[in-house]
Amino acid sequence: MRLGITSDCIHFKTPSGAVATDTHIFLRQIEALAGYFESVTICCPFIEMPQGLSYSVYQNKKISFMPSPAVGGKNFGDKIKLLQTIPAWLRLFRQLDGLSDIVYQRFPNNLNIPGFFYFYFKRKKVFATFTGSWDKDPVASFSTRFQKFLLQHFFKGPVWVYTNEKKLKANIFSGFSPSYSVKEWEEEGKNAEKKIVDLLQRNQRELRMVSAGTLCDRKNHLFILKTCVMLKSEEIPFSLAIAGAGERMEEYKTFIAENGLSDSVELKGSMHYNDLRQLYRECDYVVQSPISEGYGKVPIEGYFHGLIPILSSASILAQYITDNGNRGFVFDLADKDSLFNVLKYVYEGLSAERKIEMIRDGRSFVKTLTIDEWAYNYITEIRKYYPSIVQDN
Questions:
Q1: Strands 19-21 and 12-13
Q2: 330 has which bridge partners?
Q3: Pair 266, 241: CB distance under 8 Å
Q4: 107 closest CA partner among 65, 78, 149, 75
Q5: Which of 102, 98, 117 is nearest to 157 (CA)?
Q6: How far, in Å, CA of 230 to CA of 342, rounded?
Q7: What is the pLDDT of residue 393?
């Protein structure tokens, strides 16, 4: 059967004409799903190829693309452009309908608001992922809340969400967003054991930390940087690598320089998936401080490499990911000293034996959170709703 996908994930063409995206995980997930379908058509925005951006190129020949306009923004003019784009989107949805037997809609985004209504009234077979927080999210926009409402009350197919809730509707499932395969989990086994040996030999004389994500207000890296000032003041040795690019890059560069952190903190910029894997191997702790997070991909990736996560409580699934503090740590953004206190304890009070337990527990935890398992889980539930809609992989 044929799969259609509607997404706001930005794509572009390389000089050689290949299709690429800087959202590496999206590409890997879609290529895994493609194994179950005859063809996959992705309706998504295309832009001119940005400079200095790490990207991944599609390899699966089953996948083709239907470029949509790249629109969006917060000011009034941007909203007008969105409304003007709706007729073009509807034409694309009509084409996608003809090229697919089932449509995968990835919410929340502006494209899928008219997309929801188009395929709803067409009575199209559909399934969806909601990548925002399904639980109460104080910073969610009206648009995001509206799309959640539509999925809760009117969506006809299965929906996967990131949630702590135990009671969900029959067609709504708690899900995860994978980065790695089973093969990659196995590959990292030796590296994780080397990390344990290295940890014992060094006896933790430095906090080697990594954080990853777009440099924006929501990811809130400034909280971590302010904590680094405290670590320096207390003469606790540390290093921090921040992987990602974004609107706050220059602000963070200035903060690092003004506070004398240049020897300990490095802004790595946009990194390819493989380079990020190497960075994980060089660190011991993943530190994330978002003011809102649906699903923490970064700490899950860290577990694969034997890292211990230290997460803000605003990460909706922080307690689930850390098993309520048994394989990681959670701090409170409302307390400016909270992350510092956790890091000081990790440096001064956490035994090597306990760290090793956490590393091995984390590795065991993520063994089932792979792309292979994710794709199989989706296909299993889709078959229940639409028998014979997909073939065996």
A1: antiparallel
A2: 311
A3: yes
A4: 149
A5: 102
A6: 12
A7: 52
In angstroms, the CA 345 to CA 325 distance is 13
- Give the residue from 292, 276, 235 showing the smallest Cα distance to 28: 276
pLDDT of residue 78: 57
Using alpha carbons, select from 95, 16, 87 the residue that is nearest to residue 55: 16
Tokens 């706001």 belong to residue: 8
pLDDT at 392: 58
Q: Tell the burial category of 268 from Cβ atoms under 10 Å away from its Cβ (0-12, 13-18, 19+).
A: middle
- What pLDDT, on a 0 to 100 scale, did the predictor assign at position 47? 94
C-alpha 58/C-alpha 52 separation (Å) is 19
What's the length of the chain? 393
- What's the confidence (pLDDT) of residue 183? 93
- pLDDT tens profile 116-174: 999 999 999 999 999 988 988 878 888 899 999 999 999 999 999 999 888 899 999 99
192 vs 240, higher pLDDT = 240
Mean pLDDT, residues 56-73? 90
Using CA of residue 226, residue 227, residue 228, residue 233, what is the dihedral sign? positive
- Per-residue H/E/C for the chain: CEEEEECCCCEEECCCCCEEECCHHHHHHHHHHHCCCCEEEEEEEECCCCCCCCCEECCCCCEEEEEECCCCCCCHHHHHHHHHHHHHHHHHHHHHHHHCCEEEEEECCCCHHHHHHHHHHCCCCEEEEEEEECCCCCCCCHHHHHHHHHHHHCCCCCEEEECCCCCCCCCEEECCCCCCCHHHHHHHHHHHHHHHHHHHHHCCCCEEEEEECCCCCCCCHHHHHHHHHHHHHCCCCEEEEEEECCCCHHHHHHHHHHCCCCCCEEEEECCCHHHHHHHHHCCCEEEECCCCECCCHHHHHHHHCCCEEEEECCECCHHHHCCCCCCCEEECCCCCCHHHHHHHHHHHCCCHHHHHHHHHHHHHHHCCCCHHHHHHHHHHHHHHHCCCCCCCC
Amino acid letter for position 373: E
Tokens at 136, concatenated:
């109460």
